[in-house]
Amino acid sequence: MNILEGAAKTGGKILKSSVENNGNFLFLSAAAGWALASLAQTIGLITNKEIGKEEKKFLVPQEILDGTFNIATYAAVTIPIMKCASKMATKKMPDNKQAIEGARTLAAIAGGVVSSNIITPVLRNKSSVVIKKLMEKKDLTPPPPEIYDGRTYPNFKSKQPLTMQNYINFTRTMQNSGSLKI
Known about the structure:
This protein is mostly helical. It has 5 helices and no strands. Helix 2 runs parallel beside helix 4.
């Protein structure tokens, strides 16, 4: 059996399971939707010509991490909830397949709501704090420019950043600058 036949066989089993079990179908389609949405967002960021290379270096990994968090937390939360709901429904109504399916479907919905609206944002925020602290430890401040680059005023005696206060101080040293009001 080659790879394509194996993938088709596995895909057929998943599809058959999904048709027989609405909860599984909901779970798989939500996970696939998040994966495709994250992939589309990442490709959009990569191909957008209006976003600079420096921004892309940050945004592309962030989007990949965000998609990974979404899918991982959805799976980590929803699968145990679905198993628990299925066991509870089986104990209460062992012969009622429709009730068991309904419990699994509701569990898939509840898992999606809890993971995407509560757990994922918390994890994303915590991870961004950790990443920010790691980045702050590195000295990412570029050296001062040797030539005029538009961000510093070229005639300052020492290369000073172009801030309003530095500009006001500079204009005070110039002739006819006494009437400058900002």
